[in-house]
């Protein structure tokens, strides 16, 4: 083959670029430009904004700390065995959260699916492959949940093929339990929406010899909730890694009884022919979550709380300086448990609706996302902002309220 023909045939191969480069006289090789610092979101025309709302999935959750990004960067230079890493990180997380065992999942949602899979299959590999076809494997098929705990995330259980049986009272639970019942699931953020509280729920599960499981994805802060539900005796606990903990948004934690976590991992990557194979977490994310959690535990939580209160105060003061505006600071009792500011006004004196103000904030520069826009109010939660942004939010809200004042 002539040199020209070699080049021609090589160019059809996937790795041809580098081989070709070695064949071309060196002075003609164009060195690749050094990777420039690119602002990719700007380049793509994707709107960025100040988050005055909280840990919202469609708003990309939370911002990872530098130490999380460092962990991701540093660990990206080596290979390791995915299972070995999960073993070691799981052990550490379990210790931090008072659980017998733990594993990193791709979000709280996947923690619930994998935990449910573990309950259904145990260590039976044949059953693992049969999921979600429960009847084929002779597996249990029903999960009991309170009416007040209905949430779209319960679909994480349905993914395993189970049927959700909704109940209202303890008597309903007694009636609902049968030989097909696999477990009893609780929604941590709905504790006040259901008739049955944690202790009674766990006692009922105990009485019927069923595992009790809990979705507490957004129940931190307070930090104690990290271990509280393990201490209470829930068989598995699912939480998000990319909310208050500020790990990668695509991570979560499944923790609880050793036999359930071990069984759950049979349905998790790297194993194929499982319902969980699509729920992969890479080593960098596993380690990112691990350091995020470690760091979260060592935070000065009182100081952080005070910072959030200070941010609320800055925005509250600016809003209240406008005539006919009233404010109210509350803390949601469970889930998104942080200082939250409601700003309301008299629409006879300020010609603006709540939705109108939200839209004006979105369209402004920088763009700001607040929430709860009603007829004459909006809500602001400053805990996921970058420190200092509260001043911009305060000024923008004041500006719009003044502009609409008659
Ligand atoms: C956010 C959330 C989930 C889902 O968590 P991911 O980590 O995004 O998978 C599930 N349940 C509740 C109550 C949540 O708030």
Would you summarize the structure shown here?
This protein has 16 helices and twelve strands. The chain has 406 residues and is an alpha/beta fold.
Shape: globular
CATH class wording of the largest domain: Alpha Beta
- Helix-strand sequence: HHHEHHEHHEHEHEHEHEEHHHEEHEEH
> Could you estimate the helical fraction of the residues in percent?
40-55%
How many H/I helical runs? 16
Rg from alpha-carbon coordinates? 26 Å
Kindly report the CATH topology of the largest domain: Aspartate Aminotransferase, domain 2
Distance between the termini: 85 Å
Structural class: alpha/beta
Spatial order of the strands forming the largest sheet: 2-8-7-6-5-3-4
Low confidence ranges: none
Proportion in β-strands = 5-15%
Largest sheet: 7 strands, mixed
CATH homologous superfamily identity of the largest domain: Type I PLP-dependent aspartate aminotransferase-like (Major domain)
Quickly count the domains.
Answer: 2
- Ligands (ions, cofactors included): pyridoxal-5'-phosphate
* Tally of DSSP β-strands: 12
What average pLDDT do the residues reach? 93
CATH architecture call of the largest domain: 3-Layer(aba) Sandwich
């Amino acid at each position: 083959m002539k040199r020209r023909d070699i080049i021609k045939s090589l160019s059809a191969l996937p790795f041809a670029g580098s081989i070709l480069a070695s064949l071309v006289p060196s002075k003609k090789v164009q060195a690749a430009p050094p990777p420039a610092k690119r602002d990719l979101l700007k380049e793509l025309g994707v709107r960025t904004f100040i988050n005055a709302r909280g840990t919202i999935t469609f708003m990309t959750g939370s911002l990872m700390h530098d130490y999380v990004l460092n962990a991701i960067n540093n660990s990206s230079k080596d290979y390791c065995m995915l299972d070995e890493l999960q073993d070691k990180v799981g052990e550490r997380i379990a210790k931090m959260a008072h659980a017998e065992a733990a594993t990193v999942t791709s979000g709280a949602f996947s923690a619930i699916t994998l935990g449910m899979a573990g309950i259904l299959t145990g260590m039976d590999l044949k059953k693992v492959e049969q999921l979600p076809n429960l009847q084929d494997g002779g597996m249990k098929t029903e999960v009991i949940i309170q009416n007040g705990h209905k949430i779209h995330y319960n679909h994480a259980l349905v993914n395993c093929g189970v049927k959700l049986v909704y109940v209202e009272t303890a008597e309903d639970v007694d009636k609902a339990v049968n030989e097909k019942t696999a477990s009893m699931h609780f929604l941590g953020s709905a504790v006040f929406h259901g008739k049955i509280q944690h202790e009674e729920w766990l006692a009922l599960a105990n009485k019927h010899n069923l595992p009790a499981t809990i979705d507490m994805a957004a129940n931190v802060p307070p930090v104690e909730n990290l271990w509280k539900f393990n201490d209470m005796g829930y068989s598995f606990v699912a939480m998000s890694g990319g909310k208050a903990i500020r790990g990668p948004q695509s991570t979560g934690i499944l923790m609880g009884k050793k036999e359930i976590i071990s069984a759950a991992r049979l349905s998790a990557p790297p194993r194929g022919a499982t319902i969980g194979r699509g729920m992969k977490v890479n080593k960098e994310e596993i380690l990112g979550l691990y350091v995020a959690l470690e760091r979260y535990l060592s935070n000065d939580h009182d100081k952080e709380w005070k910072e959030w209160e200070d941010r609320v105060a800055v925005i509250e003061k600016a809003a209240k300086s406008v005539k006919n505006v009233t404010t109210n600071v509350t803390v949601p009792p469970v889930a998104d448990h942080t200082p939250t500011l409601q700003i309301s006004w008299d629409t006879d004196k300020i010609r603006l609706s709540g939705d109108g103000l939200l839209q004006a904030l979105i369209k402004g520069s920088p763009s700001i996302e607040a929430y709860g826009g009603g007829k004459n109010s909006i809500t602001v939660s400053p805990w996921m902002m970058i420190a200092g942004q509260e001043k911009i939010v305060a000024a923008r809200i004041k500006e719009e309220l003044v502009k609409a004042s008659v």
